[in-house]
Amino acid sequence: MKPRSLAKILTALIGLGLAATACSSTSASSSAAAGSPGTAPASSPRPAASFLGQLHGLTQVASTVPTNGDVNPYGVAVVRASAGRLTAGDILVSNFNDKANVQGTGTTLVEVSPAGRASVFARISALPPGQTCPGGIGLTTALGILPGGWVVVGSLPTKNDGTLPGLDPAGCLIVLNDQGTVAEAITNPDIVGPWDLAVKSGATSAELFVSNALGGDTTTHDGVPVTGNCTVVRLDLALSPASPPKLTGSTVIGSGFPWRANKAALVLAPTGLALSGDGTLYVDDTQTNSVSAIPRALTRTSAITAAASNLSAGGALNAPLGMTMAPNGDLIVVNGNNGDAVEITPAGPF
Length: 350
What we know:
By secondary structure, the chain is mostly beta strands. It has one helix spanning about 5-15, and strands at about 70-80, 90-95, 110, 120-125, 140-145, 150-155, 170-175, 180-185, 195-200, 205-210, 220, 225-240, 245-260, 265-270, 270-275, 280-285, 290-295, 305, 310-315, 320-325, 330-335, 340-345. The longest helix is centred in the first third of the chain and has 14 residues, at about 5-15.
């Protein structure tokens, strides 16, 4: 398993409360005051109050490779409530690569139980009539579950040779019902290569926070996107038990996040998202080895720049990918380059 695949799975296990028996870490904490860039020490003793200090073992639960051979499990979401074919306590995984290991061509969602039972929840080969996704289907890290069992997964399709699509916007969010059947595709100009997402939901509405991996002052080489500046967007959805979620609003709340095409990872861009109880959205950036904090994410009407929102940079961060909130309120960030888990306290050093 690639380190970046492990990174996303570990964050799901932490969110499910299984991390104490699911992984180990040799990482140090990395902290800086919100709003002021800072570099954490390269290493320091793991403090007694840290969440990662409780983790002592690694146990393989199951393979996430389905019958069609898709690999690289990149997106994960914990099933909080049973609905249809979704069972509470299971983990849903989106595969990023196809059997030939071409990035941005995976089409399957796999459901894994804590006991290790794995089954294909969905294989997305096409969208319903009248629905489109610019560029096609290629599942990403962006994966979440809404009330009623509606599953939302990002799509950033690539060409056959695994190169980024020369489209603006590119990709979409695909919505499936609790049986794994595609219901709709969500597109708009603010959704440009959806790379990861976080969810805040109630009975009749939900907010999806999506980090984009493309767009913004894009430079190209032979028609293929190479670099640019991307955004973080809040999507407001109306929920109904009888019909798929409907997009009611879209607001860019973060801007100026650099992205760059990368042969090993397809694209280096803001990836991990985590929403705190006070409404702060945390964003980790794989390219810049940093974590940003976007305050008032649920209500803000304007974008804060990546530079102005920097919380922590450098130190133990090494191509950060997966991120989640630990039970003690700290951020757990998992590196793509070495698989280490890094604990960051939003309030400052331990």
